[in-house]
Write a sequence for this structure.
């Protein structure tokens, strides 16, 4: 199990939205709440821990990006994320969204 965590840790990286677009087009992007540890989520998915994953989904801690989010990121292809590939998904945390100083009118 430690081997898997170490393997996933090596694959954890920063990615610009531009690099993630092909994964978004095949509906493989899964957003992970910044309060969750990306490696923990990757481990749970890799090990088919369905109960844990279902709980995160029901609590909306992991979810598919909304059309609005996709549009925002398409408008800013250099927006950066922390990303982890766990086939067939790309787990993504928007760790930079919270520090944006320009408010979006909603």
């Amino acid at each position: 199990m430690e081997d898997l965590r170490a393997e996933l840790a090596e694959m954890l990286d920063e990615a610009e939205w531009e690099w993630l677009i092909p994964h978004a087009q095949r509906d493989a992007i899964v957003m992970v709440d910044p309060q969750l540890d990306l490696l923990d989520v990757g481990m749970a998915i890799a090990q088919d821990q369905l109960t844990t994953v279902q709980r995160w989904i029901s609590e909306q801690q992991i979810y598919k990006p909304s059309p609005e989010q996709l549009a925002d990121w398409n408008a800013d292809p250099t927006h950066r994320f922390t990303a982890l590939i766990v086939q067939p998904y790309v787990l993504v945390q928007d760790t930079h969204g919270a520090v944006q100083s320009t408010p979006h009118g909603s």
